């Protein structure tokens, strides 16, 4: 090798060393703990020794350029465990609904949260972190989280519990889609499927979870303690959306949106997002999407909760008579109440509209979602028609249709039936 080239090679080699050391320092600042720093140090030592073996200037130059660009691309993209895959979900323009209405209909793809694949990932993580901060949960001690859920929160809790060294015990109504309880069992949760009952009944799924948590704590033969997650009443729920979902929507739209549409189960999503967005955009219109049998529609529209025939306690079999899961309720929970006064209007969506919309979204947009997402999309499209072209409306896609194969999606087939249904007939216009 000519002398001059040697200098180049040497110079490039030291540049490589400087680069990797600089990256090492930057990365060390970003990650916490000696274990992580040691891992990075080893990685960089390997990189340097690989570079040291190159004695041809062109190959060395090429390698350095490649390394520089991969460091740039890679920095910060590695997630810290499954919890690192929660939040920052995409905002998707639903093209068919936007074209039809002349409005931009945007959907926050919450089914892409990485642990339990629904907005409940944010809530479950927030509940666990809050309890950890208060010293109420100790990893690998047998501490168990108990929750009453129609499925989504349980699935998120069960996944995050596994990652953090806790156990999960889920109480759910036995008329929810079977794939949800199957999934919970595969995640290692204990599952109690109970008869649907009104909240006044001590065996109602939420009441039962509270009782089970207390029984665990009182039982000295059981390791650890029982913690009742209490998604309907806990501050951790709406706050997760106030600090996560709401700000993300604001940023993703550049603060330019006219309306937000969402269903409510616990009410955490609609309250948290609304409280954040209205603090920035006081003129934003917020609309509740409500399924049949839920009392929330009347509460928002007329200030009264119940139709006499829907009064809590009068229906022994079903709390809410609908095929739709996850939204609709006949009591005002704390999580709904914190944002209630900021909700401007409500739109009722029936089961057949939701089923037809779910099928429409697959046939025209390739988007495969569950029942609450379909309700949201019907309401968002109705609202767009009411507001007229030129508006921007954000709604939520909560979970995938894969969670609803045995019930909501049971009778539906897609493909070859594009002409069967029109958006006019779905919306009833
Ligand atoms: C699938 C699904 N969609 C929507 C919701 C409603 O969200 P929130 O409880 O924040 O009102 C839930 C609640 O459990 C759900 O399971």
Indicate the overall shape: globular
**How many helix segments?**
15
Question: Which percent range fits the helix content?
Answer: 40-55%
* Ligands, ions, cofactors: pyridoxal-5'-phosphate
Order of helices and strands: HHHEHEHEHEHEHEHEHEHHEHHEH
Through-space gap between termini: 80 Å
Q: What is the mean predicted local confidence, pLDDT?
A: 89
The Cα radius of gyration reads: 26 Å
> What's the count of strands?
10
Share in β-strands = 5-15%
Catalytic activity: O-acetyl-L-serine + hydrogen sulfide = L-cysteine + acetate
Subcellular location: Mitochondrion outer membrane
Family: Belongs to the cysteine synthase/cystathionine beta-synthase family.
Protein name: Cysteine synthase 2
Describe it.
The chain is α/β, with parallel strands linked by helices and about 425 residues long. It has 15 helices and 10 strands. The strands form 2 sheets. Strands 1-2-10-7-8-9 form a 6-stranded mixed β-sheet, sandwiched between helices. Strands 5-4-3-6 form a 4-stranded parallel β-sheet, sandwiched between helices. Helix 5 (about 120-135) crosses helix 6 (about 150-165), helix 9 packs across helix 10 (about 270-280) and helix 10 (about 270-280) runs parallel beside helix 12. The longest helix is centred in the N-terminal third of the chain and has 28 residues, at about 5-30. Residues about 315-320 have low confidence and may be disordered. Pyridoxal-5'-phosphate (PLP) binds near residues 267 and 269.
Summarize the structure.
Pfam families: PALP (PF00291). The protein is built from 15 helices and 10 strands. With 429 residues, it is of the alpha/beta class.
């Amino acid at each position: 090798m000519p002398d001059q080239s040697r200098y180049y090679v040497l110079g490039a080699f030291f540049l490589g060393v400087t680069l990797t050391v600089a990256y090492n320092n930057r990365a060390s600042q970003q990650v916490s703990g000696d274990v992580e720093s040691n891992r990075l140090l080893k990685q960089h030592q390997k990189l340097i020794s690989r570079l040291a073996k190159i004695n041809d200037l062109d190959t060395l130059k090429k390698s350095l350029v490649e390394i520089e660009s991969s460091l740039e691309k890679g920095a910060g993209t590695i997630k810290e465990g499954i919890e690192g895959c929660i939040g920052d979900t995409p905002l998707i323009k639903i093209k068919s609904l936007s074209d039809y209405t002349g409005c931009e209909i945007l959907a926050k793809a919450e089914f892409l949260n990485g642990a339990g694949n629904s907005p409940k990932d944010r809530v479950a993580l927030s509940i666990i972190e809050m309890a950890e901060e208060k010293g109420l949960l100790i990893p690998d001690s047998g501490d168990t989280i108990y929750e009453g859920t129609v499925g989504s929160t349980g699935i998120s809790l069960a996944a995050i519990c596994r990652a953090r060294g806790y156990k999960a015990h889920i109480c759910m109504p036995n008329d929810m889609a079977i794939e949800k309880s199957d999934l919970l069992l595969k995640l290692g949760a204990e599952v109690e499927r109970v008869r649907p009952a009104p909240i006044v009944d001590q065996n109602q799924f939420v009441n039962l979870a509270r009782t089970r948590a207390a029984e665990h704590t009182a039982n000295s033969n059981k390791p650890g303690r029982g913690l009742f997650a209490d998604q309907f009443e806990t501050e951790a729920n709406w706050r997760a959306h106030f600090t996560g979902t709401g700000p993300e929507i604001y940023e993703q739209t550049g603060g330019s949106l006219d309306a937000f549409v969402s269903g409510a189960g616990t009410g955490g999503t609609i309250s948290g997002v609304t409280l954040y967005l209205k603090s920035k955009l006081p003129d934003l219109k917020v609309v509740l999407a409500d399924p049949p049998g839920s009392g929330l529609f009347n509460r928002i529209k007329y200030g009264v909760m119940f139709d006499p025939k829907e009064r809590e306690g009068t229906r022994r079999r079903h709390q809410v008579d609908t095929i739709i899961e996850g939204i609709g309720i006949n009591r005002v929970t704390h999580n709904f109440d914190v944002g209630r006064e900021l909700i401007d209007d409500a739109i009722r969506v029936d089961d057949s509209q939701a089923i037809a919309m779910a099928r429409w979204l697959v046939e025209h947009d390739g988007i495969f979602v569950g029942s609450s997402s379909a309700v949201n999309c019907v309401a968002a499209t109705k609202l767009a028609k009411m507001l007229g072209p030129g508006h921007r409306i954000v709604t939520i896609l909560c979970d995938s249709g894969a969670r609803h194969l045995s019930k909501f999606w049971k009778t539906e087939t897609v493909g070859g039936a594009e002409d069967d249904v029109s958006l006019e007939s779905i919306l009833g216009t």
